[in-house]
């Protein structure tokens, strides 16, 4: 059955890119509601934005969704990954600013909040999106692919000049809690050489050594170093799971990304849904539900390092 959170969970912090303080609450919602963001700082007009792929606008450093009135919320990928990774299908995310709080730069604080209150089963079946044929998209920077598969599996490959990151690849079956155990605590990262350019462009204004991993050549500048030797590729997989959540239902298929980012994953979803014989939507039985990312996860599975 579909789920929502048992009770409201509150977070406070700053936006990674705006640097502005923000308060956010994940609230219970009924079946078939989906994940919807609501800008509580906007008093008039339509202030709700469904977290869906066709509401996303291109933004290379984060995932940005916009409604028909032009109201937006950005940097939603970490909380979206936490929701799908904890098996939450319905929630109203109330926020009093234009950007989700970055917290420690990972999804672990959101996961901890969700698992602390638990999930509530609703009275409608989970609908899943089953990939039936391979779809693929390319840009000059990389490519992404979705292929048929019995659950949600993921391969990701990255290649950075800085030796502290370098070339990294990882493969995971995201069934029943793998996201919480393996990915949720991996933080966003950047190259020290890019920080000044990002800030000149009005980005990363809230970035610090405490909410991002900063690398320079073969050195990790952030205090405490890495949480995982391959934390960078793990974080890219975290982002991809959050971006795939904009499909609006759990995906059954194999995702592969080669130097992929938010734009490529959104392009991939658009290609999938533009291919009528490339997928089908069906009810989820008990056996299949046990293979979904959030099945059976518990708070003790969050890595102690986070």
UniProtKB/TrEMBL annotation:
Q: Residue span of the signal peptide, if any? A: none
The Gene Ontology CC terms held by the record are: membrane
Co-factor(s): Zn(2+)
Q: What are the BP-aspect GO terms?
A: lipid A biosynthetic process
Entry-linked Gene3D superfamilies? lpxc deacetylase, domain 1, lpxc deacetylase, domain 2
Q: Which reaction does it catalyse?
A: a UDP-3-O-[(3R)-3-hydroxyacyl]-N-acetyl-alpha-D-glucosamine + H2O = a UDP-3-O-[(3R)-3-hydroxyacyl]-alpha-D-glucosamine + acetate
Mind telling me which InterPro entries this protein's record contains?
A: Ribosomal_Su5_D2-typ_SF, UDP-acyl_GlcNac_deAcase, UDP-acyl_GlcNac_deAcase_C, UDP-acyl_N-AcGlcN_deAcase_N
Its annotated pathway? Glycolipid biosynthesis; lipid IV(A) biosynthesis; lipid IV(A) from (3R)-3-hydroxytetradecanoyl-[acyl-carrier-protein] and UDP-N-acetyl-alpha-D-glucosamine: step 2/6
The UniProt keywords, alphabetically, are: Acyltransferase, Hydrolase, Lipid A biosynthesis, Lipid biosynthesis, Lipid metabolism, Metal-binding, Transferase, Zinc
Provide the top EC class. Answer: hydrolase
Listed EC numbers: 3.5.1.108
What job does the chain carry out?
Catalyzes the hydrolysis of UDP-3-O-myristoyl-N-acetylglucosamine to form UDP-3-O-myristoylglucosamine and acetate, the committed step in lipid A biosynthesis.
Family assignment from sequence similarity: Belongs to the LpxC family.
This chain's protein is named: UDP-3-O-acyl-N-acetylglucosamine deacetylase
- Recorded source organism is Marivita geojedonensis
């Amino acid at each position: 059955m579909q789920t929502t959170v048992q009770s409201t969970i509150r977070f406070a912090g700053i936006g990674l890119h705006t640097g502005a303080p923000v308060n956010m609450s994940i609230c219970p919602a009924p079946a078939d509601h989906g994940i919807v963001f609501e800008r509580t700082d906007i008093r008039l007009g339509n202030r709700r934005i469904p977290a869906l792929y066709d509401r996303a606008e291109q933004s290379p450093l984060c995932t940005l969704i916009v409604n028909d009135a032009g109201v937006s919320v950005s940097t939603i990928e970490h909380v979206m990954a936490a929701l799908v990774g904890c098996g939450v299908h319905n929630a109203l995310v109330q926020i009093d600013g234009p950007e989700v709080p970055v917290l420690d730069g990972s999804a672990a604080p959101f996961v901890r909040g969700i698992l602390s209150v638990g999930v509530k089963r609703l009275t409608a079946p989970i609908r899943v999106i089953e990939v039936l044929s391979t779809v693929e998209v390319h840009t000059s920077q990389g490519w992404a692919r979705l292929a048929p598969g019995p659950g949600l599996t993921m391969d990701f490959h990255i290649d950075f000049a800085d030796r502290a990151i370098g070339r990294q690849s990882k493969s995971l079956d995201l069934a029943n809690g793998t996201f919480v155990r393996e990915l949720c605590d991996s933080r966003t990262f950047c190259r020290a050489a890019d920080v000044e350019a990002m800030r000149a462009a009005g980005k990363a204004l809230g970035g610090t050594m405490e909410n991002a991993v900063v690398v320079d050549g073969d050195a990790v500048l952030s205090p405490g170093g890495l949480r995982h030797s391959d934390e960078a590729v793990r974080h890219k997989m975290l982002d991809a799971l959050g971006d795939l959540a904009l499909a609006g239902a759990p995906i059954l298929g194999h995702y592969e990304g080669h130097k992929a980012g938010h734009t490529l994953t959104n392009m991939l979803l658009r290609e999938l849904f533009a291919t009528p014989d490339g997928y089908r939507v069906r009810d989820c039985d008990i056996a299949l539900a046990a293979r979904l990312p959030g099945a059976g996860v518990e708070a003790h599975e969050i890595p102690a390092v986070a």
